[in-house]
Amino acid sequence: MANNILLLSLVALSFGLLAYAFEPSPLQDFCVADTTSSARVNGQVCKNPNSVGANDFSFSGLHLPGNTSNPNGSRVTPVSVIQLAGLNTLGISMVRIDYAPWGINPPHTHPRATEILTVIEGSLEVGFVTSNPDNRLITKTLQKGDVFVFPIGLVHFQRNVGTVNAIAIAALSSQNPGVITIANAVFGSKPDVSGDVLAKAFQVDKSVVGQLQAKF
C-alpha cells in the first residue's frame, strides 16, 4: 500500500512539474496583452475583451526582407507577444530570418521555447549542441522546403552556405521565447564578467578576453 501511495505521489509530482514547465492553458477565448498596463505578472495583463478587435490578432510586414548589412550578415524579424498582442497566453510565436550570402545567425539559445525552422529560399547549414558532458554537435545542410527542430534551451545556429540570399521562417513554442546570444552574453555583459574568469574558462590570455569584450 505504501509503495502504491509513493508511486501515485511521484506521478502527481511529475504531472505537476510538467504543467509548470510550459505556459498555462488559457481559461478564456483569448487574453490580448494590454501594453498600457503597469501591472507585472508572468506574461501580460489581459485587455478588456470588449475593446479587442481584429488588429490585436494581426501583424503586417513579414513579407519584407530584413536588413542584413551587419557583422553577422543576418536579420531576425520577430512576431512575439511584443509585436502581436493577441499571442498573449497562447504559447506560440514566429520569426522571419534573412541571411546574406555566408551570413550567420550566431550561436544562441531560447530559454523558453523549442524552435522549428523551415527554409523558404536558399541553403542553410544548421545545428545544435547537446548539453554537458557530451557537447555533441548535430548538424545538417537544409534546402528549400526542409525543416529542422532545435530543442528548448540548447545552443544552436544557422549559416547561409549559398551565394544568394536565404530566408527561413521559424515557429517557437512560447509567446515570448527569449534569446541569449552566447558571444553577447559572455563578452558583452553589463558590467563585464571578470577577465580573469573568462580567461580561465576559455583557456586564453586575458588580453584576448579584453579584445573580445571591446567588440561587444
From TrEMBL:
> Upper lineage ranks?
Eukaryota, Viridiplantae, Streptophyta, Embryophyta, Tracheophyta
Q: Which family does the similarity line name?
A: Belongs to the germin family.
Q: Does the keyword Metal-binding apply?
A: yes
* Binding-site list for Mn(2+): 108, 110, 115, 156
Alphabetical GO CC annotations of the entry are:
apoplast
Q: Where in the cell is it found?
A: Secreted, Extracellular space, Apoplast
Q: Where is the signal peptide?
A: 1-21
Q: Which GO terms describe its molecular function?
A: manganese ion binding
What keywords were assigned to this record? Apoplast, Disulfide bond, Manganese, Metal-binding, Secreted, Signal
Q: Which cysteines are disulphide-bonded?
A: 31-46
Q: Which organism is it from?
A: Perilla frutescens var. hirtella (Perilla citriodora)
InterPro entries this protein is in? Cupin_1 (IPR006045), Germin (IPR001929), Germin_Mn-BS (IPR019780), RmlC-like_jellyroll (IPR014710), RmlC_Cupin_sf (IPR011051)
Under the heading SMART domains, the entry gives: Cupin_1 (SM00835)
Tell me the protein's name: Germin-like protein
Q: Does the keyword Metal-binding apply?
A: yes
| Chief site of localization | secreted
- Per UniProt, where does oxalate bind? 105, 110, 115
UniProt domain Cupin type-1: residue ranges: 60-210
